[in-house]
Automatic annotation (TrEMBL):
GO terms for cellular component: plasma membrane. InterPro entries: MetI-like, MetI-like_sf. The chain crosses the membrane at residues 7-31, 75-99, 106-128, 171-189, 210-232, 271-292. It comes from Collimonas fungivorans (strain Ter331). It comes from the Bacteria. This is sn-glycerol-3-phosphate transport system permease protein UgpE. The keyword rRNA-binding does not apply. The lineage of its organism: Bacteria, Pseudomonadati, Pseudomonadota, Betaproteobacteria, Burkholderiales. It is a multi-pass membrane protein. Pfam families: BPD_transp_1. Belongs to the binding-protein-dependent transport system permease family. GO terms for molecular function: hydrolase activity.
Amino acid sequence: MIERRPLLTAFAYAILILGLIFAIGPLYLVLCSASVSNQQLLSNGIALLPGPQLIDNLQAVARRTDIGRQLFNSLMVSSLVVIGKLALSSITAFAVVYFRSPFRPLIFWTLFATLLLPLEVRIIPTYAVASDLFEPLKTILQSTGLDTLIASVAGIRIEPSLNLLNTYSGLSLPLIASATGTFLFRQFYQTIPPELSEAALMDGAGPIRFFIDILLPLSKTNFAALGTIVFISTWKDYMWPLVVTSQENMRTVVLGMATFLPTESGQWPEWNLLMAAALFAFIPPMIVIALMQRWFVKGLIGVGK
């Protein structure tokens, strides 16, 4: 039975239109500001109507910055983080839910507590590790005296060193470990009936086969939802790429947009070129959302098993 209430329908449409304005409005203003001159923006404020200089501004951005390289760097880093985080989170959640251990609650809540430590809080020790991946190992060897013992016995001095700055590994590895994905996969795995794992065990399926042949196909919507969210959050990340990169060829597209901001007193910001660069940066996430929309929505509302 369908109830027809004109006032309720009109109110629902009003809410939808208001949400659409809040969602599309900023994108429209970016497009308008990217299609006018910078002098017009500085004189009249933000543009409310499109202008005739969109192509010229896009070409100016392509001449002033290596936008292709920056887009490739952002795409590479975001893809590595998505792959690493999905793999690590799904396997960790599988171990937490299906492996019986007296330390399981302690392990899970320890992982959950790391949610309280975002990257901004631990950025200094993370940078120290990225500048030399083996620095913790060297510290342990020196504090325990093992480096001296090995040098006296074997005649060699162990000083391992691996610099991850200005590399894709350095840009992606610190962002892979996250308790959020583990928590989401754990909650999903707990909704799967235990009879399913018991049936798989009776059919001779081991833990690895149960995980690959049964759990992974059931989790495809969760992979799509979490992967989309992680891709977008990594794509727009500004702080960590700013800290870990100093070479122009390793800059991401978000750092490239900062090229058009003033760096000296008295210098005017080039808002029109900044908005044009934002249009370049806007395209890949929109493609990802368009391709993953169907699975993304199912993953968020918890259907698709």
